[in-house]
Amino acid sequence: MDLSPIRKEDLEVGKPLPWPVYDSKKNLLLKEGYVIETQSQLNALLTNGLYRNPSWVKPAAPAEKSGEKFGEKEEPPSKFDIVNFTAVSLQVGDMLQMQLSGENDQRYGVRLIGFLEKKSVLVTPPVSNDSIILMRAGQSVVMRCFSGRNAYAFTSSVLRVCSTPYPYLHLTYPIEVRGMKIRKSTRVRANVIGSVWRDDQPEKRFPCSIDDISFSGAQVNCALPLGGMGDALRLYLRVSNQGATAYVSPLALIKRCSETESPDGRKYSYGVEFHNLDQTESFALQVLVYQHLFEVS
User: pTM (2 decimals)?
Assistant: First the structure.
């Protein structure tokens, strides 16, 4: 996607944006139709540079499909909603995940210090190996957090780096926050490596990979057969969150199995359903789902 810079005269306070707006790293900042409410917001956005796709065309509204509705046991898929930052109801001390734009997928745990509506958000700086990561004014970041069955994400940038009386960051106040209500059946793509064994043969453990996962089940791949329908498996997974690592072993029952040939040999795939999760295992699975849910480009 080729982007062109947006000039100051291209934007007006109080008028809907005619196209999506991006930063220099091609991160989506504002959706088409968003209204910039104040001149101070506009000035803050222009400080770090704004860009648009000159070939972007507004998509036509999709036609409604008649006679199509979800079954009684089915739920509509989770979708993003645009909410205000205050609607997230974050409290001082809450943890957020910070991803530095332009770098790898590493996410750092930071804590909310406070915020002033439409001004800035104050957070602790990201830390790696007990050392504070150096940040610079104007640096773009992606922030994520979750609460209950809701996940949130927003883009921002460093407004100011402060070192006294303690290190902290001023982030630009988010124009909008993307929120998603996560249902139990929501499945997300993942690439989790772990090990698996049958509950009646704990001495035989095999490496496995998980291609997708939800709060209630997962797809497990292994190079060796593990069992048939209804057999119990035990997974061993590592979950990292906010700088801490936990190892969990949820019980899973095989609900579907298949085998395929590949250049590397035969592969066995199992659709499993989690059973009798304790509080630690349930929380760890939530973390895995949330970590793979948001892919903000």
Answer: 0.49
What letter represents residue 189's amino acid? R
Q: How far is it, in rounded angstroms, from Cα 76 to Cα 70?
A: 7
Instruction: State which of 141-150, 194-203, 249-258 shows the largest mean pLDDT.
Output: 249-258
Q: What is the pLDDT of residue 172?
A: 95
CATH 2.30.110.10 corresponds to the domain 80-181: yes
- Specify the CATH class of 188-293 in words: mainly beta
b/e burial code for range 256-281 (CB count within 10 A of at least 16 → b):
ebeeeeeeeeeebebbbebeebeeeb
What are the residue ranges spanned by the domains of the chain? Answer: 4-52, 80-181, 188-293
Q: What is the mean pLDDT of the chain?
A: 78
List the beta bridge partners of residue 120: 116, 172
Q: Is 181 left (phi over 0), alpha (psi -120 to 50) or beta?
A: beta
Is the predicted pLDDT of residue 162 greater than 90, yes or no? yes
